[in-house]
Amino acid sequence: MRLIASLPWYDLPTLRPQLDAFWSVLRHELNKELQRVHTDRLPLPDRLNRHTPLIEQWGHPGLLLSQCCGPDLFTPQAQELVPIARPVFSDLDCTPGQYFSYIVCASHQARRHDLNDSSRFVINSASSRSGCAALFEWTTANGINCDQVLFSGAHANSLDYLRNGTADLAAIDAHSWPLLDSRGITIIGKSKEAPTPPFVMHRRSPISPALMHEALSGAIQQAGASINIETVISASRQTYQPISSAWHTHLPEGASPCCALS
């Protein structure tokens, strides 16, 4: 069986070399763990998979490691995934194991009174905590109604929608914010905290979640600083509650249930 691994959630061009280097360290740690438990060496992938669509990866029994949004775990496409751990981001000032989103708009709309009572929202994914749920929570609390929802497929695309005037508001994962082109964009708010996106694997993967957790912890001790991860803590499906259906009534028909945060 072909084994695959990916780290898609923050796989932006500026971070790609560090992610490749991190996988090299993690691959070494996996081999060490396999030897420790007297398991035959497995044909671990040399490189991260960047060409297979995420939903195909999530359904592949050879998936050793990937990432998803917490709410993705409750979608049919991710029913075979097992959460392994969640990262503690070292670049965010929040509770360890949590993260948040910035609420953003085009700079020329940055003054609060320039925002209309009804605005066009752009989201990266229907099941994204950082790009969808966070936006609806913040706008509801601030009395901003949703006039239209546009689906961009990625945080970087959402910023383009704001810059070209196609949309008015977006929520952007704060961990990915420094990696994105934020020219012409202004932060006007900050969402509530939520559990960070989990590392996941296929439930029929030949490596156990416990072994992967050990290898992942060891790799982060050695190379986590390069990708702004301090450590990992435990995660399960119970960590991530299904997202409310409240904002789904506004979603565009056929919106995809998953996407990378890039």
| Number of E strands | 12
Mean pLDDT: 90
CATH architectural grouping of the largest domain: 3-Layer(aba) Sandwich
State the shape.
elongated
Q: What about the largest sheet?
A: 5 strands, mixed
Give the class from helix and strand content and strand pairing: alpha+beta
- Give the SSE order as H and E letters: EHHEEEEEHEHEEEEHE
What percentage of amino acids are in beta strands? 15-25%
Helix fraction bin: 10-25%
Tally of helical segments: 5
Q: CATH topology of the largest domain, anyone?
A: D-Maltodextrin-Binding Protein, domain 2
- CATH domain class of the largest domain: Alpha Beta
Tally of structural domains? 2
Question: How far is the N terminus from the C terminus?
Answer: 29 Å
Explain what the structure shows.
This protein is of the alpha+beta class and 262 residues long. The protein has 2 domains: 4-92 and 195-239, D-Maltodextrin-Binding Protein, domain 2 (3-Layer(aba) Sandwich); 98-194, D-Maltodextrin-Binding Protein, domain 2. Helix content is 24%, strand content 22%. It has helices spanning 16-36, 54-58, 129-141, 155-163, 209-223, and strands at 4-5, 63-67, 81-89, 98-99, 101-106, 118-123, 145-151, 170-173, 185-190, 194-195, 199-202, 229-233. The strands form 4 sheets. A 5-stranded mixed beta sheet has the order 1-2-11-3-12, covered by helices on one side. A 3-stranded antiparallel beta sheet has the order 8-5-9. It has a two-stranded antiparallel sheet with strand order 4-10. Helix 3 links the parallel strand 6 (118-123) and strand 7 (145-151). Helix 1 packs across helix 5. The chain is elongated, with a radius of gyration of 19 Å. Residues 244-252 and 254-258 have low confidence and may be disordered.
